């Protein structure tokens, strides 16, 4: 995950937000990535549960047991690697409730996760403009 002097939630323009290439991955590409991480035993879990690159935003230590992962140490590693892949940060437990529940990229990826024309058509630029309004 990239680190910037103004924090990961920066909107000052000191670093560009770029949509991760993994957003275009199909289930098999996600499975191959999991295998390359060193977890070949979970490749089929991701494929059979139809986890695409767009769905990775929802995969974390809370959701991994639902698709068959039970080793907590493995879940922590996979969750951390997903955050790095998507260049997102999990919010601190101490964050103010007046702030959005995620960083801008995380919020965008959540909006892009569903399938359909509306989600497909949404661009990062449009989303950031919406956030500013």
Automatic annotation (TrEMBL):
Pfam families attached to this UniProt entry: SAM_2
InterPro entries the UniProt entry points to: SAM, SAM/pointed_sf
Alphabetized SMART domains for the sequence: SAM (SM00454)
Signal peptide: none
Coiled-coil regions, chain positions: none
Domain SAM: 25-88
The organism's place on the tree of life at top rank: Eukaryota
Name of this protein: SAM domain-containing protein
């Amino acid at each position: 995950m990239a680190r910037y002097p103004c924090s990961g939630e920066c909107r000052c323009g000191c670093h560009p937000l770029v949509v991760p290439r993994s957003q275009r991955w199909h289930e098999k590409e996600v499975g191959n990535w999991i295998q390359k991480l060193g977890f070949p035993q979970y490749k089929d879990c991701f494929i059979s549960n139809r986890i695409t690159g767009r769905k990775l935003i929802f995969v974390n230590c809370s959701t991994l047991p639902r698709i068959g992962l039970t080793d907590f140490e493995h879940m922590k590693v996979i969750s951390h690697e997903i955050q790095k892949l998507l260049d997102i940060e999990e919010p601190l437990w101490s964050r103010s409730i007046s702030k959005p529940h995620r960083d801008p990229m995380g919020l965008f990826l959540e909006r892009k996760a569903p399938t359909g024309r509306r989600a497909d058509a949404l661009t990062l630029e449009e989303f950031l403009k919406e956030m500013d309004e």
